[in-house]
């Protein structure tokens, strides 16, 4: 088999399984509406949970940042790409979340990969929830350390795995809110299990930060947990992109020396850091509280109405409301039916989710209105 044959075989296998991924060049894809060509859809696939991607103050902050700093950082933060805008954002994040330090990364994927690669050696072990994000599991599987997975949110199995003999150190890995199921991790019990085993805890709170808890401080703060390593990303509740690692002074100094993604990647544009600082101000403000309250009310309205329509949902109280339909072909058919009714929904299929659990990953934002949800549920009912 040559290279081209290998590629064609892999693509053919995906097509046969109705698992081939595609992209659509939209003119607007975040917030309440998605525009594709001349069509406008009510958007239920965006992670812009608070609607900040379109916030006038955030947009203007990016513009002002570009006017001051230019549109690029010019290099790695270790060379010339670490500006006062980056420093100000890191300081604000650390103070907001109660950590000594924050380090910025260009994406949540990069942050997760960098931290796990830098922290773990061949005598160590990662113990991760089996439904953790691909960036976490891939990094753990590529590291020289052992990788053991515990059943989703099963603290008993986590405790058993942590008790197995080991010469090195252990890192427990989980998400705060799981990206494909929308449910929350029992962080208090997980933190207790990690502490009893003298392990460190790493939590990726991509889908909780900005949305949950006092001032939007996220899953860990709302559950009274302070992991040694907290990953927050900016492409969801913040409405922008990028990520940060929250940690102690010594861990930050260590990562600055050994986290290769941090050392060898061009840092985020300083204008982006300026926009993120403004997004953080909105999140922490009374306006942020109002947006979170509205989102919570929309989630309640959706779940109550979905029950009246006899739809089976996961145990999610977050903005992620998956409708698991099973077969890939059915998920694709339902998504297409919804688009014909003016609702943009994405079918999520293996390998992103386990086989047999293809789903419509429905996401709500503070920009939605109750009538949008009613329209979606009517379309779902008719689409069946």
* SS strand fraction: 15-25%
CATH class of the largest domain: Alpha Beta
| Named CATH topology of the largest domain | Aspartate Aminotransferase, domain 2
Distance between the termini: 43 Å
Model regions low in confidence, pLDDT < 50 over at least 5 residues: none
CATH superfamily label of the largest domain? Type I PLP-dependent aspartate aminotransferase-like (Major domain)
Rg calc: 21 Å
Mean pLDDT: 95
The biggest beta sheet is recorded as: 7 strands, mixed
Pattern of helices and strands? HEEHHEHEHEHEHEHEEHHHHEHEEEH
Q: Would you identify the CATH architecture of the largest domain? A: 3-Layer(aba) Sandwich
Counted up, domains total: 2
Figure out the total of helices.
14
Q: What shape does the CA trace take?
A: globular
How many β strands by DSSP? 13
Class by alpha and beta content: alpha/beta
Helix fraction, binned, reads: 40-55%
Strands ordered across the widest β-sheet: 3-9-8-7-6-4-5
Summarize, please:
With 384 residues, the protein is an alpha/beta fold. The chain is 43% helix and 16% strand. Strand 6, helix 7 (187-196) and strand 7 (200-204) form a beta-alpha-beta unit.
Which key terms come to mind for this protein?
Aspartate Aminotransferase, domain 2, alpha/beta, 2 domains, Aspartate Aminotransferase, domain 1, 13 strands, 7-stranded mixed β-sheet
């Amino acid at each position: 088999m040559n290279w081209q044959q290998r590629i064609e075989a892999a693509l053919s296998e995906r097509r046969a399984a109705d698992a081939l991924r595609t992209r659509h060049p939209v003119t607007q894809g975040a917030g309440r509406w998605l525009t594709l060509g001349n069509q406008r859809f009510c958007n239920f696939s965006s992670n812009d949970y608070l609607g900040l991607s379109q916030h006038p103050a955030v947009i203007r902050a990016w513009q002002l940042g570009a006017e001051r700093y230019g549109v690029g950082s010019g290099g790695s933060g270790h060379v010339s790409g670490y500006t006062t805008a980056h420093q100000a954002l890191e300081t604000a994040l650390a103070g907001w979340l109660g950590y000594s330090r924050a380090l910025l990364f260009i994406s949540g994927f990069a942050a997760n990969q960098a931290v796990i690669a830098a922290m773990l050696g061949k005598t160590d072990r990662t113990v991760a929830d089996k439904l953790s994000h691909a960036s976490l599991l891939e990094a753990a599987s590529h590291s020289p350390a052992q990788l053991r997975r515990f059943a989703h949110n099963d603290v008993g199995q986590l405790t058993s795995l942590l008790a197995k003999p080991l010469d090195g150190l252990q890192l427990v890995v989980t998400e705060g809110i799981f990206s494909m199921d929308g449910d929350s991790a029992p962080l208090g019990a997980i933190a207790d299990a990690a502490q009893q085993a003298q392990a460190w805890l790493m939590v990726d709170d991509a889908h909780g930060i900005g949305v949950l808890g006092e001032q939007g401080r996220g899953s860990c703060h709302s559950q009274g947990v302070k992991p040694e390593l907290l990953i927050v990303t900016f492409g969801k509740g913040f409405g922008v992109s990028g990520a940060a690692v929250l940690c102690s002074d010594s861990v930050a100094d260590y990562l600055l020396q050994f986290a290769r993604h941090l050392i060898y990647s061009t840092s985020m544009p300083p204008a982006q850091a300026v926009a993120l600082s403004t997004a953080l101000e909105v999140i922490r403000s009374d306006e942020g509280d109002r947006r979170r309250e509205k989102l919570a009310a929309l989630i309640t309205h959706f779940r109550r109405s979905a029950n009246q329509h006899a739809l089976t949902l996961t145990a999610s109280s977050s903005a992620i409301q998956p409708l698991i339909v099973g077969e890939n072909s059915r998920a694709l058919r339902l998504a297409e039916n919804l688009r014909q009714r003016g609702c943009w929904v994405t079918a999520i299929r293996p390998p992103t989710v386990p086989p047999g659990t293809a789903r419509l990953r429905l996401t709500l934002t503070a920009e939605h209105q109750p009538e949008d949800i009613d329209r979606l549920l009517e379309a779902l009912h008719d689409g069946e």
